[in-house]
Design brief:
- The complex is a heterodimer.
- By secondary structure, chain A is mainly α.
- Chain A folds into two domains: about 1-30, no CATH class; about 30-65, no CATH class.
- Chain A has helices at about 5-15, 20-25, 35-45, 50-64.
- The radius of gyration of chain A is 19 Å and the shape is elongated.
- Chain B has a domain at about 15-100.
- Chain B contains eight helices and no strands.
- Chain B starts with 9 loop residues before the first helix and ends in a 14-residue tail after the last helix.
- The chains are: A mainly alpha, B mainly alpha.
């Protein structure tokens, strides 16, 4: 199998929510970077205002 | 017969220690490798490169493959671990692309796949319902036959130009009869 194809397949599997079970079994407490971890990260990233928004908000507060 | 094939056992005679991927990788832990690559992506230069690649409509899979190849070539991670951590990396790049508002495509969707519908299945099996039969569209009339002969061929019909035309074509002027000087 081509490396590119393997990478594509791996991404597809991860996006479906599957994880390398044997790998996670090797580590106590399981793996950190799971699909749930990234879902949470996405929520935090997208809810968190960007720097420019923060600056605008601060300006509005100062004006008030 | 392949004459330019590698010599069997030739690999034992060459010094392969120069290649980073021939030595044990620096990282073998799943989480450690992902942390390292996420930190690497967060570096300003690497981030610019990632966004630039996404900007030219490169798929996230391509970006991930590039990053993983870099890490493998530097001996940071092994090939097997690279394949394992491709998913998390792709997800991370997807998140940062969403955050910045860059249009991206994951590249795992199979767009060329033909969706199987009942109509398609019927058509492929040759089952045509009579009700659905549509009157055949009249074929367009074939274009008039092109002339068999070439442009330089002799035209049909009258082929001989009149005497006047011939003279004109030769650049001559019809000779006028000289007037009688005496008269």
């Amino acid at each position: 199998m081509d490396f590119n194809v393997a990478v594509k397949k791996s991404i597809k599997v991860f996006l479906k929510g599957d994880m390398p079970m044997k790998t996670s079994g090797l580590k106590e407490g399981g793996l950190l970077y799971t699909p749930d971890f990234f879902d949470q990260m996405e929520e935090e990233f997208l809810e968190e205002p960007t720097d420019s928004t923060k600056a605008k908000e601060e300006e509005l507060v100062d004006e008030a | 017969m392949r004459l330019n094939a590698p010599i069997p056992g030739g690999n034992y005679t060459s010094d392969t220690r120069n290649y980073a991927w021939h030595r044990p990788p620096d990282m073998t832990d799943y989480d450690e490798a992902i942390s390292y690559l996420i930190d690497k992506i967060d570096e300003p230069e690497q981030k610019e490169l990632v966004f630039a690649m996404l900007g030219i409509d490169a798929h996230i899979t391509t970006v991930v493959t590039t990053i993983l190849m870099q890490a493998i070539s530097k001996g940071k991670i092994g090939i097997d671990l690279a394949v394992l951590i491709a998913g998390p990396l792709a997800r991370y790049i997807e998140i940062i692309a969403k955050d910045v508002g860059i249009k991206y495509e994951m590249g795992v969707e199979n767009k060329d796949r033909v969706v199987i519908t009942p109509t398609l299945l019927r058509a492929s099996l040759g089952i045509i319902e009579q009700e659905d039969e549509v009157e055949p569209v009249p074929m367009e009339q074939p274009p008039s036959e092109a002339p068999v002969s070439g442009l330089m061929a002799m035209p049909e019909g009258e082929v001989v130009a009149s005497e006047g035309e011939q003279t004109e074509m030769l650049g001559g002027v019809e000779e006028e009869e000289p007037e009688d000087e005496l008269s």
